Structure formats: structure tokens, C-alpha cells
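Progress narrative, work stream C.
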Amino acid sequence: MGAATGQISADSIATGGARPWPIARWLLIVAAMVVLIVAVGGITRLTESGLSITQWQPVTGTLPPLTEAQWEAEYAEYRATPEYRLEAGPAGMTLSDFKFIFFWEWFHRLLGRLIGIAFAVPLAVFWVRGMIPRGYKPRLLALLALGGLQGTFGWLMVRSGLSGEMTDVSHFWLSIHLLTALFTLAGLVWTALDLRALARDGASRPARLTGFAAIVGLVLFVQLLLGAWVAGLNAGLASDTWPLMQGRLVPEVDWSRGAWRAFTHDPFWLHFLHRWWAWAAVAALVVLARKARPADRRASVAVHAAFGTQILLGIFTVTSGVALWLAASHQVVGALLVAATAWAAHAIGRRA
């Protein structure tokens, strides 16, 4: 008992009287909430719900319409959008249909608000009580800023689909919105792991990002970017066969408008790149997992499990014609793969 008390006192002195364990647990809870909002965001995209709310009302938008008059007012605003005029309206959308898509966008925004509160309020409490270890305040503030930026990016994404003749949001803004969320997720996991290590050993230093882990992160970033563009352009529907696309290994691509246009807008070419760049990502992740294994076997297993599941879900999503539950699961496991990659990279960084 005395030895344990002495160890706690020593760690407390080494960490400046801070208490890393509660903060680490809190960050992991917020990380789980980020995975959840990524899942709901995927469903929102797949159900074409993202443009159902045409205004950004951070406070008053918390409550959904509660009366028929309020529902009619929201529906009237949606009927003025290009998506309704050119697609949903001609397809025969009813008020009941609108309420369905409105729910997913409202729920997505509500989760964003809840994540903001779940991060900001405990952060303020930990700060006032002096529980945050030395050197971690700037990092936590940066994560808070990323959360706020994410909300701004989300609105800019929605606004991109409300003007002109756009019937969908910009796939560029969609990728910025998604990748910012995944970068924030990685930051939450990494910081939580640093704090867990600090809780075990008061003299522990934060893990560093090794050069190899940065390269793996870049390879994975390209794959995630391609995935976001595929989602934004509905390019998953370009082929429902695997490994061939419409009987060909390399699909027909319209190069007449230049390579840049093909690499950023052609659904067939982006679908092709996404499905085959995945193997470059797998190769990089296999090596990352092997390097992480001596330091943390669980991180290595998590990476293998995540990318294996992700590959299968990707294939099944394509062959199912982009079934809702498969496509949403593909996006969720993508988020879990990011978390697992951050875990393995952290293990390598601590070992180094």
C-alpha cells in the first residue's frame, strides 16, 4: 500500500499534479462519438439528405420542426433548391419523404453539436482544476479548434450544393469535411495514448511521428481522399463487378478535357483508382503493423483486422450496387482503420 502510494505521489509530481487517466478516457469517448458521426454522415450522404436543411443555425437549429406549419416552412425552403427542382421534385417527393431526409441531416448536425459540448465542457473543467499535464493544453486547444473548423467546413459543403444548378454538394468540400473529421479522430487517439503512457509513467514523453509512419499516413490519406471523391460523385455506381469494371480491367475514361479533369471528376477513373490504390495502402499498412507488433501487439492486430474488413466491405459495396448498410459500414470501418493506424504509428513512435 505504501509503495503504491509512493508511486502515485511520484507520478503526480512528475506530471505537475495533473491526472492524465481521466483525460485519456474522455478523449477516447469523444473519439467514439466522432466514429458515430462519420457513420451518420455516410448515411446522410447515401440517402441524399445533406441538402434538406438549407440554413446554418447553430443554436436555434437544435430543435427539429415541431408543428405542421414549421414542417411546411422547411419544406418550402427545400423546394427552392436545385436538388428539389431538378431531381427530388420530378421524382415525386412528398412531405413524408422530406421528413425522412430531414431527420438524417438534423441528426448529423445534432451529433456535431453534442461532440462540441462533450469536448469543450470537460476541457474547461480539467483546465480550471489544473488536471491537464504540462505541454498538453496547446494540443487540446488545437483539437477543439479542429472541431469548430469541422462545423464550418460542413456548412460550406452544404452551401456548395444550394446554388446554381448543383444537385449535390461539391465533392471537394465533402472530402475536406470528411478528412478533417478523420484527422481529428487520429489526433484524439494519439493524444489519449500519450496521456495513458504518462499515467503509467510520469517521466513518459509524447510519442513522435516517425518518417515511415508519415509515409503510411500519406498513402492512406490518398485512399481516403479518393473514397470521398467516389462518394461525392456517386462513382461507386460506375461498376457493380469486381475485379473488372464492365468487363475491362481499366475502364474507358474521357481524357478529352485533360488529365486534371479526369483525375478529379471522372467517376470511372476515380472508381478505378480507389479500388486499386487500396492495395498500395494495404502493403503500407502491413509493414506498419509488423513494425508496431513488438511494441504493441494489439495495435498490429487492430490494423490487420481493420484493413481486411475494409477491403471485403469495399468489394461487397461495389457488387451490391452500393447497398446502404454496406456502404455505411465501409465508411465506418474506414474511420476505425484511421484510429488503428494512429495507434500503430504511436506504438512505433514510442518505441523509437
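Work stream C, second folded protein:
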Amino acid sequence: MSTHLHTALSLAADGLPVLPLRKGKVPFGNCPACAKNACGGRPNMKTPGACTCPHPCHGWAAATADPGVIISSTWVRAWREAAAVAYHPGGAGLTVVDLDNAEAIAWARASLPATRTVRTTRGEHWLYQGAMQSANAVRPGVDVKSAMAYARWLGPGTGTMTALPALVRALTVKEPSTVRPRPQAITVPARAMGGECQHRTPTYLDRGIAMAEQRITEASSAVHATVYRTFLAVLSTHGRCGCLNDAHIARLFTAAQAKGESARHCTDAWTNALTRLGL
């Protein structure tokens, strides 16, 4: 058993979802079946349209604490080539404040409550109990790694882990933008049989968009998957009659971005839903 695989199993036993990293501290790339996100999303999720690929090829989303997956034949091959072990902090209810230089460390010591500290190549990781939205460059030399992110395992560190402080949560809060997102325009085929729109009045469509916005807004977990499934549902109902317009799409993108999805993720999810439906 390789050293990295042994470490991964030990961490998984403690409840940390783990994944192998290749050289350069990056996850293994998508397998051919999942290239360019053609599979529609995240692995090992029991939902329609979700990817069930057994390979560790979806970055943070592939992280698992299941020893059966970790020692499976497809993962063992990756462990043999792995250069390091990573874990998904948000999946374990943790947040890592990644301090990349001496100035960032000085700021943390002056501003944040003491907690467990792990030395890194250039700085320190400060670990807190509690998950939150991840974000890069929240301050000079400071990244926040929690939900939808991975952190390299560099040892257990020293000190007692404390609760995630409000100041760290506030680092990712940005001023509301006054610029509405510009979703990707879509072209849908005309109805095969022609004739009037089956929805007859705009009220039916508006109600459907409102329900989709609510579904996204109320998501408490698996936001990326929820956004994809919601886009898929909207397009399956309204995508072939030509009644969707930019304003409707902007409402959906705005709801998704309010939950932490990036504009790129929104566009990818929308494009994948279109591809899945053959639109």
C-alpha cells in the first residue's frame, strides 16, 4: 500500500473526504467520458443526470470518505501516480484560511481567533470548525477553502480548533452588483408541428420561472447539482416552444449566482442541460 493511500484511508476514517492530487498539486483530469463536463456534473450522486463515474476525476467533488471507493481499482491506480493527498474541507464541516505569506500571517494573528495551524510551503493553513462559501484572494495572500474546494493535507497541525469566526465569513461578502448578468443567448428549434405555444399565456411560464428561482434559492446543499437539475427541468418544459427569453434566463442565473455559483458555472450548467435535451 502506498504512503498516500495509507494516509487517505486514515483521514477517511476520521471523516475527512479525500482525493489524490497529481504533480502540481492539482486533481486528476476528467476521464474521456467526463471530458468538458459532458457527463452533466458531479460523481456518485443518485440524481437524474448526475455523473456516476468511478474515477477520481471531478476535483473536490470526487472527494470521498468511503474506504470502498478509495481502495477501488480505479482509485488505486490514481494513488500510485499521486503526488499528494487533498481533502474537501466543506465536506467535513471545516474551513481553511490559506495564508500565503508573512504579511497574511501577521494579519491573521492580529485579527482572527487562534485555532489549529498547519505549516505550508509558503505560509500557514488556519483550520476552523464550520463550513462556508469558498473564495480566492479575499485579502492579499489570503484564500478561503471550504465548500466546493480542496486543500492539500500537510499534517494534523498544532493547537485547538475553534469555531469559524464571523470575520472570516465576512471576507467573502461582496457589495451587491448593479450590473445584471448577461446569460448566454440560446437558440431553440421551432416546434415540430408548428402552431401556437402550448403554454397559451405568459402566466404559465412566469409561474414556472418563479418556482425554479425558489427551488434554487431554497437549496441548502448540493447547490451545483440543484442548479443543473432546475435548468434541465425548465428547458424540458419550456425549451422547445421558443417562449424563453433573455429576461427569464437572467432571473435563473441571478438566483444561482446569489447561492454562490459563478457566471461560468451557470453557463456550463445551462449548456449541459441544452445538450442533454438535444436543444
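Strands lie at 18-22, 26-27, 84-87, 94-99, 116-119, 124-129, 135-139, 142-145, 151-152, 162-163. No further action is required on this item.
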